[in-house]
Batch of 4 targets.
Target 1
Amino acid sequence: MSLEFLITSLIVVVAPGTGVLYTLATGLSRGSRASMFAAFGCTLGIVPHMAAAILGLAALLHASAVAFHTFKYVGVAYLLYMAWNTLRERGALKVESDLDARSAAQVAVTGVLINILNPKLSIFFLAFLPQFIRADEAQPLARMLELSAVFMLMTFVVFVGYGLFAASLRDRVISRPRVMTWLRRTFAGAFIALGLRLALADR
């Protein structure tokens, strides 16, 4: 495992994106346990993209304008839906004291969908992972799986860190209605901005 791969992966994982935003919002509104489910869901959501990259399906997505744009606009619609729910106090910033099994599952599923519905991830992994596999690699598939596993582990650890940080501020945030209103508008605006960025993305 090269140091270059680890550093590059860390930069990619730490960079603010939809998954980070969702994990932070979940930690602020529902606490540390919920943020871990969010981190798990977001991490699980990149598995199909990595599988697509490994199996070459991402190249097909890249080549097909119809497939790419269909996938992309479904993702945009979901981000706008999340923004709307956040403003209505039913989405990522829905305050809950107790996290039951159903709520935990909903948190994880939302995290999965956030990443699954982003076609740029498949294309990113298609371009990213092969860079760290030597031309003379004896078992390239095994190497790709190894790199994917490390990337996923790093994603989960970093996202849990984000979530726990947000959860540590929870009591000071949810007790202030004005702050919560401001946060809901901010997070909703951020989801809208990410949706617009995805809408304008090219293959």
Target 2
Amino acid sequence: MEDAQKWIDKGIDFVVEFGPKIIGAILIYIIGSWIIKKLMKVLRKVMAKGSYDQSLQKFLVNLVSWALKIFLVIMVISTLGVETTSLAAVIAAAGLAIGLALQGSLGNFAGGVLIMIFKPYKIGDLIEAQDVLGVVKDIQIFTTKLTTPENKLAIVPNGAMANGNIINYTAEGKIRVDTVIGVGYDEDIKKTKDVLMEVLTSNPKVLSDPAPSVNVMELADSSVNFAVRPFCKPEDYWDVYFATYEGSKLALDKAGIEIPYPHSVEIHKAED
């Protein structure tokens, strides 16, 4: 009975000493989380009214959100009775250890900052980087998310993005679509060029400036190949690409111009 009473007394002393601190820490965490959500909502509205770049908005919101959450955790720990001076020393030591272990992540963070400063691309741009082609869906603190033409989500580290080659197909507002159409050697070159040019100029998604072009590209083994090159807006690239091939086939057939293809030859052995 004495041992039981001793444990009960210790439990009461613990509740009396640490109970208010624990309750206070819980309240600080709940209220702090609510305040952070409200602040993030206000920050988004302010940045939206200020016409900030969408990529910069998301990046700064993520950065400020993480900073406030870390500050909140420090406040909660401090409320529990941990001295802030010793806590700062522990955080500094842990930060050094984590920094050494996560050098790649820090590089990705630095890459994200560089992307925000120099803006090689923004959300909605069609880019090619790190052997990935896609539309920029989101730029986060450590990674950039791309949606590929196959509607796959590609997540590329910002460190690699900042230090590698980037081709931005959207930056200039216009993109050239390169297609190759081959016709037979017996066909009239001028007539073929006129037919192919009509295919391009009749497509409303093909831009008139820069003007589309049709030129003899190659005298191949079995065909005369034409470089058919329309310009369009980046978002219309695939529509123009497929329409050019389909429209060229239909127009050449209608004009009686042959598109050569391999013919199989049957050899019949003479019967004795």
Target 3
Amino acid sequence: MAAVLAGAGCGASSTAPVPVRNLPPVNVQAGSLKTGFATMERLAEAAKREGELNVIALPREWVNYGEVIDTFADKYGIKVNELEPNASSARQIEAAGRLKPDVFDLTLDTAVKEAARFAPYKVQGWLDLPDNVKDPAGAWYAAYGGYMSIGYDPREVKPPAGFADLLGPGYRVALDGDPLRSAAAFDGVMAASMRAGVPRPDQGVSLFAKLKQAGRLTDPAKANTIVAWDHLNAARGAAHPDRWKVVIPRDAALGDYHVQAISKAAPHPAAARLWQEFLLSDEGQNLLQKGWARPARGEAMAMRGTLDTEQAARLPRAPGPPVLLTIPQQDAGKSYLKKQWAKSVG
């Protein structure tokens, strides 16, 4: 299915009813629902006693996080404190000691690097998550992902088949930020660099350098073509269907995930675990998909009939399974851009 970034296992864990008198004491630091709480009801009760949840880097317009947060707060009666909504992954880690977030929403490379900071916890849908986007010990795991895409104004330019077409006449192109500071913009350059499924950073920098030299690399407010995650371009297209279309180039199907983690120093450890259970539940995954993201559990949900298939059908058409950059490939790309971007593009 186009709604799913990658294949996943089919078996979700479940919690059988346990007689109340036989339940062990609640352990809010546990690594799973079964070992720490036994039931979702006991987890919810423990979280309600804490009363609050600190989240960070969750803009309300990003993948429908506003509705996700409000639904969670209303469902469980927990106050959600929204810290630094626009913080980057690096900023989340930097500010954690002062701001004390309970949970993180991170890029994959940051999660891998900072895994020692996180409290392992395997959600009930653990087996539905692709193995290559979860830490075997449960320190972090994907909740949603997307493809790098090209959004364009069909009134001004022809549908681009790939990144090379952006060098043609009429395209005024923007990245989603500075690729030296923005993960989304960096991935845009890396998508443009793909050759037969392999990133070649020099090719990506070369394309944007040519656009710059031609005076057609601009900012999003002036662009008729924006290289960004498909959920951002799709949201723009949903608001203006006649003025904005989205394509995921067949020869550059670069994908990525945002992963979740619980802070070892979480001030509200039960609420943090309840948040992860909600975000990875069928309800939470469908709410993220409503924001044009691709649920990490999407394939298993589709097989069980719990995925919102109407919304899934509205997502931009994916040309096939995504290419996920390895950590060494990301590091090599960042190193190359650090040396060449300012020199070649400015």
Target 4
Amino acid sequence: MTDAEDRLAVAERAASAGSRVAAESYGRGIDVETKSGKTDVVTEADRRTQRRVIEVIREEHPDDAIVGEEEDELKTVPDEGDAWVIDPIDGTNNYVRNIPIWTTSVAAVRDGEPLAAVNDCPALDTTFVAGPDGARRDGEPVSVSDRSDPETFAVAPTIWWGFDRRDEYAAVLSALVERFGDVRRYGSAQVTLGMVAAGSLEAAVSTVDPNPWDTVAGVHMVRRAGGTVTDLDGDRWRHDSEGIVASNGEAHDELLAALRDAA
């Protein structure tokens, strides 16, 4: 087993173990707390899930850095060395509303670049995986959509805009509606990126600077499925980039132009 294969296996075990913890409280009226704003919510299930994910990783890689959304883990991805990027429940707003679009996300990273990634979505009974052999959904190989006509594209705005940036969100929506066939928003960036990788969506975009736990795993999936992911300037996306534009690569320039027009 290669190192990348080993890390993918660990990511799969960790995401599966964590998602089982999250699923135990799903739909059970768990208490909800807020963090930076009224729509930035967290539950004890988030914290328990992250702890379980870390426990599994530490069994095999006790010295690696951990980047996690909750508690006192790192909040930025190291540019050197091995690290793991965790979102215990990506889509907590969906989770607390009993909407099944949420996931436990785990990515293995080396020197700032992902090696393996898993988004385990128990309420959807779906798992997205990216590793040395490409991208898979529920064990089956997937690839990005082959649509090339923007007027047939389904584009998802993702990474939510705060109350002080809703005019910007409205401008992005307007620019997308004018150029592309359909616009949809799912409330989980990682699940949305998995859908791009699997060809269900043509693109996912945001002008908001994303957190690594919301994006790193899904970005790796899109790329391993043959897609393109850049920042708002069209440069190759990385964990500290400005905004995100993930697509099947067929009309990426049109997506960039739409976001520039919305600025």
